[in-house]
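anyone seen this seq b4? input:
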Amino acid sequence: MSNILTAFFSASGVTKAAAEKLSEAVGSDIYEIKPKDIYTDSDLNWRNPLSRVTKEQIKKARPELADYTLDISGYDEILLCFPIWYYAAPNIIHSFLEAYDFTGKKIVLFATSGGSALGKSCQKLLKSVSEKTEIVDGCMLNNGVDAEEIKKFL
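predicted toks r here
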């Protein structure tokens, strides 16, 4: 087991592919964050004010996770990958962070997006962990993963 974990949420597969490359580049273990209720294409239609993701955003909902069995005790660093929704991390990332104790761990954020940056993801996610958890911005993974650049960054 590596002391680095790449944890990711991907609704369409784009972030999953980037997270797998990131995990391979750094030699980390990998874990997929899955919602109990899988997102459908209509759920993901952010232009529809009645879509699931829009409602979750407005209500600041915490989607239920599919499982709560991840053992993070052996990891010092978590590379957390997600798509950018509404200029921030999806609410399921808050669900994940609130489900486990990340005290004393470092979380590095990586994201994919059609045009947004990490924005205020770090600032917003800090509210979902203990004050003894470090969260730092990583980088966007839109144009693939350059293993050497990631290693330098980390």
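The chain has a mean pLDDT of 90. Helices lie at 14-26, 52-59, 91-99, 121-125, 147-153. kinda curious what u guys think
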